[in-house]
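Write out the 3D structure for:
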Amino acid sequence: MSTEFPGFSTPAAGFEVPLEMLAACHLRIERQCTTLQRLAQHLLTNGSDAQAQSAASGLKRYFDISALDHHADEEVDLFPALIESMAGSDAVCLRQMIATLSAEHRELENRWQRLRVVLQQVAHGMPAALDVDEVNDFVGLYERHIAREQAELLPLAQRLLGDDELERVGLAMRARRKVLGDPLAKPSPA
């Protein structure tokens, strides 16, 4: 594999290159976080207008499905493959990193549920406002989380996992999204 981490910037990576796909997912998460921050400001001046409703619906769709799939890609497939590839004291450090990243996934999912309640109201045209500090805390946690995965986790996986392990991870990601047909097909946005 020739792609270097961090800095992979092609958002349409496919299942045949699962690490690149995870990196591309990080870019999409960052874009959704930017939309969430913009929506919080938009609601202050424009309320739950049609533009806000559309943005809220899109955010809900993304974080309810794609972000959870991304977390599962890491926790169910990538993390176990990495642990299996390590031995000795390195495995202890890796387990600590994975425990921290998994705990951050739970924290992000909990924070998302609080934001989702407001977005549900906005999506239905009801007057609502997002707490800007709560949005910024959520976005900040995602930024720190993604930065660690990009700087530490994905380069480690690229170095340690062989083609067979990466193929298994990619196929599991594909199955999670119920993508049919060509196993080398490009995924739906995650």
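Residues 18-176 form a domain with the Four Helix Bundle (Hemerythrin (Met), subunit A) fold (CATH 1.20.120.520).
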